[in-house]
């Protein structure tokens, strides 16, 4: 990782927003802010207050839509807390702000924008997939004049770097486009795509976003572990993301000289289900040695997935080739679920009916042993782990990552 860059002060953040988000550009317009949920490190209270303060005198309306993807719905009180809206604020300066969850699984809440054709998907995927894909998005966008994304950029296991148009797809998109490009990312594999700027999946996301018939703007930002900001970028989702991804590549990657036999990857409290805590594997898979072990340490975690748990328990966690070799057997499972499975299990082979994962993935969490065994992951009682026993042992081939999931580790080559 390069030397840390200077962080923006609160005054720097406010000044940037004042200088770049010109109120006149939003005059008499209905603005829908699209924000991440609580599974991303982000100074949303500061940013929401500054953006609302800058635009509210000019805009006709400002509302908020949480880009859940397929994550669980957030109660109104949790959304207010996410944005830093106090009870007094909700009755005062933000009284007219409506707060919405994305509803990906309710067809009546979605609007079809068109289709990516077989020719489109063949060309974008380099021939890996060839199918027509419906592009649907949250119907609420039709009620607004500007869609303003307010979200961070990190290395990402499916798309290369998160942010930008990813807040539309899968953030507020429908299941078909989500399942398509998550499976495309799985076919390419996490290790090959994470931290790579230009990827086929990014092309899918940008191509789908081009179908949106509403003006799109984006305030992309790059965060430090404590939610301070290294930088902010405003413009189209494509341009803001482009610059933010360049900065993320500088501050969100750590290069190491050789792989580790043992990694203790500690999930922060915001990862309260394996669906998101899988990031503790994704960001570290590139530096786990062949035959090594990665432990996702999350004593607070008791769920595989609130939304997708039963399907994941039916399928389990397996390497990519386990599914590609038995495509018919798993044809009834949404490909987004299969993609999650392969990303958590990591690389490996499936030859003559025998699966050979490259690394051992072990859960040290509130998920019981029998469940871990059923879903094809290792189990470790978290009470047997003293985190400090793993500290300062990199020369021995042991790595401790105290807040895993956002910093990408790669080998120096």
TrEMBL record:
Pfam family name, one: Lar_N
LarA-like N-terminal domain location: 21-186
GO molecular function: lactate racemase activity
Lineage: superkingdom: Bacteria
InterPro entries: LarA-like (IPR048068), LarA-like_C (IPR043166), LarA-like_N (IPR018657)
Annotated PANTHER family: LAR_N DOMAIN-CONTAINING PROTEIN, LARA-LIKE N-TERMINAL DOMAIN-CONTAINING PROTEIN
Name of the protein this chain belongs to: LarA-like N-terminal domain-containing protein
Protein's organism: Symmachiella dynata
